[in-house]
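Exercise 7 asks you to align residues with tokens for two separate proteins.
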Amino acid sequence: MRTGMFSQVLLPVAVVVLLAFSAACSHEISRTEKDKQNWNGGTTHEETTVYQNADGTTSTSHEKRSTNP
């Protein structure tokens, strides 16, 4: 009985969830990284990443990290 329930209910639900997840994922279009030396001897690292969403729109992520001596 458990095998029948798995194949009739749980398997189709799992497939639908996986398809929804894969359709909702975005993928990376471009990425730039830049390192710069600060006047005080530290460094600044900048990353900019552009993603294309599942609906065709784009999103941009920008990160900036600084280290000081």
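Second protein for Exercise 7:
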Amino acid sequence: MDTARTFEVMQPRLLKYRAHYKWYLGGMYLGAAVVAGYCAYLFYMVGTDVVFKDYQMELAFTAFYFVASILGYAFWLRKKLTRSVQVHMSGINIHHGTHTDNILYSDIEVIAPVARSMFYLKMKNGVKHYFNSSLERIDYVWEGLYHARPDLFGSVDFEGYRVKLVQYDHHQKRKEWFFKHKFVDIFQWIMIPALFVFLTYKIQSQYIHINQLGLYVFRLSMYSFLAMIVCTFFYSFVLKKVLFDKKIKANMEGSGDKVRDMDYESVIVQRSKMLQTMTACFMLALLVRMDMNLFSVTRLKEDVAMTNLNKGKTVLIDNRYNCYSCKYSIQDGDWVVFGRGQIGQVMAKSGETVAQIKQDNSGRMIASTDMMEVPEGHIALRIGSKGQDVLFVNATELVGRIQK
């Protein structure tokens, strides 16, 4: 007896966006937590009134970060996390969660590459749909379009662009190997930054005064992570162009095979991470050798007396010059930054005597009776828009010398 058999229709592969978009979302959450924690710390330590008065730039940056993050998620990242694509015989389905857009091949008017791994479809009603290698196996979409509508590829190099799409697809997939080699990655992203911060502090603390230790460590950490990220993406780009792209192109032109050689790529990527570490260490050593982490910029909140430094101007600060009897010692007459971006001119150090010159009602200079000795651990600074006041400042509050 014949038995009836039923067959299920196999659905085309569901093409999703890359997993590293979830990393972007996690990084956004982490950044929000850090910024919110810093703001909470400020409110707790100095009070609400002081924060709103003296920390306006920090509050503006915080507001900008949260607004940019919300808009970026709403108009860009959310679509990547919820969108997927299926290529059918009759058209392309774009899934947006519970909603699906159906693109029929017969409704397509133009197919055109934009740049590198991005191309668009222009429909007869004028609507454009863009695709790029942030979608996994983007070459499936390109091949489906060619098989259904070869008449639209008259001026387009189908095979050449197909090779390029496969190359970028593999490149994007390798980004998911960011932390594939556990021991090397732990050494590269945890041990190297920690050693850099520790050794730099041990070296620089011998010849300068470390002001605001928390900010100093934070800057060094950001420099180290920035160096690692730059080296990682640089070597990733070099390997793509020099090795992997050429290999996949040769395979596709020869046998038509576009499958990745996972063992080969894993060995190459692991060895490149060793070169990344060496290059990053060289960059960080150069940074310490040139004291590049000891410079900063600030915007003046008021005019500086008897100089061309006016309110609103951005100036370079050499943070090495923030103490007496150091390798980089401040001198009388130097213009320095102290506290929360305040400016003053050095007049005297601990134990020395200063006198404030006054004017009478007619504008004549008169001898001052205000003879004062600078307390221990302090310096005397001339402040004010006209340099008319003298202020004793704790030496630990000095930030650095203005480079005019």
